[in-house]
Specification:
Blueprint lengths: L2 E6 L9 H8 L3 E9 L15 H19 L6 E5 L1 H12 L3 E4 L5 H14 L5 E4 L22 H11 L47 H14 L6 H4 L13 H5 L5 H15 L3 H23 L21 H8 L6 H13 L4 H14 L4 H11 L5 H12 L13 H8 L4 H7 L1
Parallel strand pairs: 1-2, 1-4, 2-3, 4-5
Helix pairs in contact: 3-4, 10-15, 12-13, 12-17, 14-15
Pfam families: DNA_photolyase, FAD_binding_7
Keywords: Chromophore, FAD, Flavoprotein
Cofactor: FAD; (6R)-5,10-methylene-5,6,7,8-tetrahydrofolate
Length: 429
């Protein structure tokens, strides 16, 4: 009888979970585990928490939802907090598990964690298997090796669209054979060293974590409102629930998979026809893949000041006061300040806002771009390591942008995207 652990991380779902299905297929009994890694809640580089209250609350909700769904299959979720090497080895010994199945990681810090866990499991006679990816396409199906992926997105997109097919989604398991598992006990935010969150009535959307909420969001954006039809036209707006998909938080924690979103997108097109909105959403899913593959290719370079170009921007000595003014929406530029207040009070900001505040920090305030990326890592509900650091390097001019010195004219941007000043009034009044 083979007993295995399925270690859930940023794949908090049952539908289209290749790691879970593989563990079930190759085991007699499966023990689902989620660990609140203590390292994810510490203060890290540049003086910011790795995980802030907004994302932590979303994760707590998603883990609770996962436990509910697992118990409907006859299984459940063991929830632990602390050092994952110690916690997983302890659970492996307790249940005589000989294997742990976990989602494949691509970012350096996460890869190092898996290496430490693999080493710690040797004493428990347990092996770690990395299975499953968070991308639309399998790495092995790409028309080029990771080392030769183009550093310009358009060149990547053209070849992938021509040569690659998105794999089918994996069915949701209906029965999971597990030993009797204790009730899941989730930590409070205070136990993670965080303050409680407050919902701001001005927020574009009130995010709630979990696979169920993610599936509801797909239904709302596609079928209830048909907002997907107008997505290309509305994606640069700043206010409201349906100007954009708001799938990002669910994708970041794996409450939804990119392939599941793509599958539903294709089903929508079969019923209602393809349009510019559906095409553009696919385009955005490709960007998510691209930044993930860029992390595979460039590794730690994406965290260096010079990025993948090895040409660090020249900055004056770091000015903490100016950085804090940017964080607190006190720069004096009302468009930047409004966006930063939304992020501070809700954990979310539009894509248009993110580009503008990042450009302002890098090119107007001349602050090292990595401080901005680290603050976003703390603050964003939808933080994803590849997308966050890839996008910041792009705006800073050290990433995948083929143009040199991309600069946003903030006043023109405000006039174009907040012509009546309604967004600024909303967040600065």
């Amino acid at each position: 009888m083979k007993t295995s652990i399925i270690w859930f991380k940023t794949d908090l779902r049952l539908y289209d979970n290749e790691t879970l299905v593989t563990a079930i297929k190759e085991s007699d009994h499966v023990i689902p585990v989620y660990c609140f890694d203590e390292n994810h809640y510490n203060t890290a580089s540049y003086g910011f928490k790795k995980t802030g209250s907004f994302r932590a609350q979303f994760i707590l909700e998603a883990v609770a939802d996962l436990d509910t769904r697992l118990r409907e299959t006859g299984s459940g979720l063991i929830v632990v907090k602390g050092n994952p090497e110690k916690q997983l080895a302890m659970i492996a010994r307790m249940y005589n598990a000989t294997a742990i199945y976990a989602k494949k990681e691509v970012a350096p810090e996460e890869i190092m964690t898996q290496k430490r866990i693999k080493q710690a499991l040797k004493a428990a006679n347990c092996e770690l298997h990395s299975v499953g990816e968070s991308t639309l396409f399998h790495e092995k199906d790409l028309p080029f090796s990771i080392e030769s992926i183009p550093d310009v997105f358009t060149n990547f997109r053209v070849k992938v669209q021509k040569h690659c097919v998105v794999p089918h989604v994996v069915a949701r398991p209906t029965v999971i054979a597990s030993p009797k598992l204790p009730p899941a006990i989730l930590p409070k935010l205070s136990e993670l060293g965080l303050e409680p969150t407050e919902q701001d009535s001005r927020a574009s959307i009130q995010f709630k974590g979990g696979e169920g909420e993610g599936l509801k969001r797909i239904n709302t954006f596609f079928y209830e409102t048909h907002a997907i039809v107008h997505y290309k036209d509305t994606r640069n707006e700043l206010k409201g629930e349906n100007y954009s998909s708001k799938f990002s938080a669910f994708l970041a924690q794996g409450c939804l998979s990119s392939r599941a979103v793509y599958n539903d997108l294709k089903e929508y097109e079969k019923e209602f026809g393809a349009n510019e909105g559906t095409e553009w959403l696919f385009f955005e899913l490709l960007w998510r893949d691209y930044f993930c593959f860029m992390m595979c290719k460039h590794h730690t370079k994406l965290f260096n000041k010079g990025g993948i170009k090895n040409e660090p921007p020249v900055n004056p000595p770091h000015n903490e006061r100016i950085l804090r003014q940017w964080i607190n929406g006190e720069t004096g530029n009302d468009f930047v300040d409004a966006n930063m207040m939304e992020l501070k009070l809700t954990g979310f900001m539009s894509n248009r806002g993110r580009q503008n505040v990042a450009s302002y920090l890098c090119h107007d305030l001349k602050i090292d771009w990595r401080y901005g990326a680290a603050y976003f890592e703390q603050q964003l509900i939808d933080y994803d390591v590849c997308n966050n650091w890839g996008n910041w390097a792009y705006i800073a001019g050290v990433g995948n942008d083929p143009r040199q010195n991309r600069y946003f004219n903030i006043q023109k941007q405000a006039a174009d995207y907040d012509a009546d000043g309604g967004y600024r009034k909303l967040w600065l009044s």
